[in-house]
Design goal:
The chain is an alpha/beta fold and about 375 residues long. The protein folds into three domains: about 110 residues, CBS-domain (Roll); about 140 residues, Roll (CBS-domain); about 110 residues, Double Stranded RNA Binding Domain (2-Layer Sandwich). The strands form five sheets. Strands 12-13-14-15 form a four-stranded mixed beta sheet, with helices on one face. Strand 4 and strand 5 form a beta hairpin. Helix 3 packs across helix 12. The longest helix is centred in the C-terminal third of the chain and has 34 residues. The protein is globular and about 65 Å long. The C terminus is likely disordered.
Length: about 375
């Protein structure tokens, strides 16, 4: 099996605790880099990504330490299967690589991994519609930039197809929004706030990109992945005729490689009745994948299970669903339960509660780690 060292790259942008967000964003834009490692004395201590910037709007003059996320990483000695699994669960564009002493050694990008497997037989056999993420989350051309930002942040995605009528009219990415948001720095605070409000209220059609690069559901993965790599994009809408039926990204292509390596992804859903079929299953799978990616950014996930149970029926024969979400991590095990008439609503509530508990525990552990240092000072 190939060595991870063969895929290693030296990032053009690296940050430290004290760097200003404005400076980092400017370099990310110039170098077309989506993920920036944050180092302290050669040790990986965090990352800055467009996801972080999208979810937490802070002053451009703030320091990196106030925005960075806990570090996602793979070890230099990890096999390629482990690396693929990490990309799949975190949905990252790039992952820092560390050695056994947690020293930063480089990054591995999703594009580099896909290029390595581009000519695999599995890519030539599979069709885009077999692996795409469906249904696609879309936005109307008349909707505001603020709504686009909310949809991306809430669903842990970085691209939205823009719909006008029933057809795809454009596409908007997290980077499109953030580049505009942070380009208004250097002005007076009151002026910045006014510009932000104007941008957030602006209809998507005014800043969307078009024409849109799309792919047909019947196209094979080799051709589709090649388009992603040559056009330097992370994903594209999938069309059947003129109708959008899903989104295809490098993460979806990695599913095929994961099957080749017979990888066991740490996610399992026990469904009941009609939830096993059709659109409900696809929505449930999509929600679980997105929340798994969020949790993987906080701690290493060992196991993630969700179970649905039909508890009762009302007088009008409407079912009540109970959802139990359970995640095993290196910090411990967390469980959350929720009930609702709508199984999707119950699922969202349960995984949101689970995420909140993991975040609180992570913050407590981080606070304990920092406390002795504060006392020494």
């Amino acid at each position: 099996m190939m060595s991870l060292s063969n895929l290693l790259e030296e990032p053009k942008v690296i940050a430290t605790y004290g760097d200003r967000i404005r400076e980092v964003i400017s370099k990310m834009r110039e170098q077309n880099q989506w993920v920036v490692p944050v180092l302290k004395e050669k040790l990986l201590v965090g990352i800055i990504s467009y996801n972080d910037l999208l979810k937490k709007r802070i002053s451009p003059e703030s320091k990196v330490v106030n925005l960075m996320s806990p570090p996602i990483s793979v070890n230099l000695n990890d096999d390629i299967g482990r690396v693929i699994a990490k990309f799949y669960t975190t949905r990252s564009r790039a992952i820092p690589v560390i050695d056994e002493k947690k020293r930063f050694t480089g990054i591995v990008t999703r594009e580099r991994v896909l290029l390595q497997f581009l000519n695999e037989e599995e890519f030539k056999k599979a069709k885009v519609r077999e692996v795409m993420n469906s249904p696609a989350i879309t936005i109307d051309a008349e909707d505001s930039v603020a709504r686009a930002r909310w949809l991306m942040s809430n669903n842990n995605i970085t691209k939205l197809p823009v719909i006008q009528g029933k057809e795809v009219a454009g596409i908007i990415s997290a980077r499109d929004i953030l580049n505009r948001l942070y380009s208004i720095s250097g002005k007076k605070k009151s002026s910045i706030l006014t510009e932000e409000e104007r941008l957030m209220a602006m209809p998507i059609k005014e800043i969307m990109n078009y024409p849109v690069i799309t792919v047909n559901g019947a196209e094979n993965l080799h051709s589709a992945v090649n388009t992603l790599l040559t056009r330097k994009i992370s994903g594209m809408p999938v069309l059947e005729g003129n109708m959008i039926v899903g989104m295809f990204s490098g993460i979806d292509a990695l599913k095929v490689i994961a099957r080749k390596f017979e990888l066991s992804m740490p996610i399992e859903a026990k469904l009941t009745g009609e939830l096993k079929e059709g659109n409900s299953r696809a929505i449930i799978d999509s929600i679980l994948e997105r929340y798994l990616a969020k949790l993987e950014r906080l701690t290493e996930i060992l196991d993630f299970k969700v179970a649905f149970k039909e508890e009762a029926k009302s007088e009008n024969n409407k079912k009540v669903y109970q959802v139990t979400a359970r995640v095993s991590t290196k910090m411990g095990e967390f469980i959350a339960k929720e009930r609702d008439w709508d199984p999707i609503t119950a699922l969202r509530k349960a995984v949101e509660k689970l995420e909140d508990r993991v975040i609180k525990t992570s913050r407590k552990m981080e606070s304990k780690r920092r406390k002795p240092k504060a006392e020494e000072i």
